[in-house]
Amino acid sequence: MRWLHACIGVSALLTAACSSPDPVRPVALARQAPTEQSATGQIAQGSPEQPEPTAQPMATEPPAAPKPLPPKSLPAPPSAEPMVAIRLAALPRSQSIVLKPSGKVRILQDGDSTSSAWTTQGNLSIRAVSNGWKVSRSGGGAPASEREFASGPLHLEPLSKADEIRWNDRDWPGEMQLHETDDGIDLVMRVGMESYLPGVIAKELYPSWTPAAYRAQAIAARSYATVESDRWEGRRHYDMVAGQLSQAWIGATDNAKANEAVRQTRGQVLVESGSVVPAYYSSACGGRPANAFGTVTDNPHHDIASVSTGDGAARKDGCCGGSSVASWKVVIPVSTIVSRLRAWGAANGRGDLAKLDALARVEVADRNAAGRPLAMRLRSVRGGDLEIEAEDFRRAINAAGDAKTSIKSCDCDVVIQGRDATITGRGFGHGVGMCQHGAEAMGRAGRDERAILGRYYPKASVVRAWK
Prior knowledge:
Low-confidence stretches: 1-47, 49-63
Number of strands: 26
Shape: globular
Distance between the termini: 47 Å
Largest sheet: 7 strands, mixed
Helix content: 10-25%
Mean pLDDT: 86
Radius of gyration: 23 Å
Number of helices: 8
């Protein structure tokens, strides 16, 4: 029997815990529980062969679980370009936030009128104080000055849509928002979908890849972001994060291929039965795709044909066989595997795993219609078996963030000999939806983005939702 467990934690990539009512899993590959308790569903690999981020263990005494949210149904295609809210980072409250807007910005809070806002230009330093925010301005051709704002979300709006806000050595388009949380400060950008996407595509794909792969990625990423934007509306102050818990995002980019792919596909989303498809994707499926439902999401509304392998699913032979991650092998000390499984079990409510002793064998307990592992069976040296979902096995092994002792996918076989385990596998990532390496192979073969998307989301149609 397969296990489904909700958990509380946070990726080290994001620095601090999420403040939403839906806690983030402490793994790179978050999943939605039936009550949507985890924070994300999309798990592409950054650049297609980029290692996963590390994770922080859960505290010894976790906070009480928040009231679960009901699963959200898939949205109809919006008639106008959506705005998306992207969390750049979760910062400690003590950290000063240094910004360099490229032009004038208007600083105000919820409920303020523009007439009561502070319009300024120059370098800004913002820090949280006991009763709100303190904003210091320097440069910009004016004397240094300082303003205080009350507690509550702080908004920084560029007066010109062409202007951006520089933070952490990158330029970010849109309006910046600062939200106080129980653990610190969430730094969020609210930006139009079409301005957001180029920075996703530029990070997700290699610069040398074909325009067709770029266009396919743009449509998939737009579809995924549309679903997430609708899903979190009114539920929390951000829709996605700028990293592998959602989609990679590097902000503004001069990548001409990424910008052109977004321009050429403007407003185009994948639609099945009148609803936008949650277009999950990963680096390389290894020829054996996975279902979205039960792998990256437990939201029953996402259990749709276009992101399902189906009962009669065949292997996608020739999909990504030419990639550098088509097959791989890693040797990991058995003691390391045991310690990571124990830590993952302790952090995710699996007391049986937390007490795991020495391993004698790891084998596939269940496979999907395409032959991809669904569950792994762990045999103890002392006897007795435990089962863990195959994706959770990968999450547990990779939680330490050590690329040399990580596995690229759950589609693997484990052979234990002495003190070491040799793990051989195929592909990179969860294997749901579009295979990025497979999309590139089709692009090189002369296929266009609609052919690519038709292969990986077979029941979906490309629809132009907004102009």
